[in-house]
Amino acid sequence: MNDSPERISLAGRLRNNFLTGLIICAPLAITIWLTFTFIDWADSWVTPYIPQRYDPQYYFNITIPGTGLLIAMVCITIIGFLGKNLIGRTIVSFGESILQRMPLIRTIYRSVKQILETVLKEQSTSFKKCGLIEFPSPGMWALVFISGDAQGEIAAKLNAEGEEMVAVFMPPTPVPTAGFLMFVPKSKIIVLDMTPEEGAKLLISGGLIAPEYTSKTMTTPVLVPPLGQVSE
């Protein structure tokens, strides 16, 4: 009976060590797996189109992971460089004019291009800030990602009331891939200092993983004496 606590303590220590090791190894293993899966996926798409004389694997007779991905990145960069000059813009405009004449293709192309331009544009403020809005009722607050100011017809109709409206995306917990697009008055949003990545962690974890925060307006703390002690 005396060794029972020791056995429980040893089992507890082994369990804690295992959980600690799992927390350390699992994110690393998942990251490595996702990275190599993406590299293999990119290679499977690009490598078959590489001429044999330009394929390093032909000369070394071994499989080099990431060759297709690297070549694709170089080609995309060269195309982007050429697309900035007059000749490149002319070719791109000619290609887009052809796509615009295809009934189904033009809709897909226009939508994808608009999404990519919005996400990749350096001046874009989409999903660069987090905020809080009162939802679903006053006194209850929900985390949202701020997309930007309302535009187009929505801005013309809503801003007519005299207050600027902002587009926000409110995802659910714990899967932030779905959610609601809402237009909220700017004065009704509390903008947070946390990054969208930190907001996503807070959201996915159900509030368990909160980012560290230090108030920018901190002043010298006022020391309050314990109860029962009255300053003379």
Biggest pleated-sheet summary:
5 strands, antiparallel
Estimated structural class: alpha+beta
| Beta strand count | 5
The low-confidence parts are: 218-232
Binned, the helix content reads 40-55%
Average pLDDT reading: 78
Radius of gyration equals: 28 Å
End-to-end distance: 60 Å
Q: Which word captures the global form?
A: flat
Q: How do the SSEs run, as a string of H and E?
A: HHHHHEEHEEEH
Strand order of the largest sheet: 4-3-2-1-5
Beta-strand percentage range: 5-15%
Continuous helix count: 7
Keywords: Membrane, Transmembrane, Transmembrane helix
Protein name: DUF502 domain-containing protein
Pfam families: DUF502
InterPro entries: COV1-like (IPR007462)
Please provide a written account of the structure.
With 232 residues, the protein is of the alpha+beta class. It has a domain at 129-204. It is 48% helix and 13% strand. It has 7 helices and 5 strands; from the N terminus they run H-H-H-H-H-E-E-H-E-E-E-H. It has helices at 4-46, 56-60, 67-82, 86-99, 103-120, 152-158, 196-204; strands at 129-134, 141-149, 165-170, 180-185, 190-192. The protein has a 5-stranded antiparallel beta sheet, covered by helices on one side. Helix 1 (4-46) packs across helix 3. The radius of gyration is 28 Å and the shape is flat.
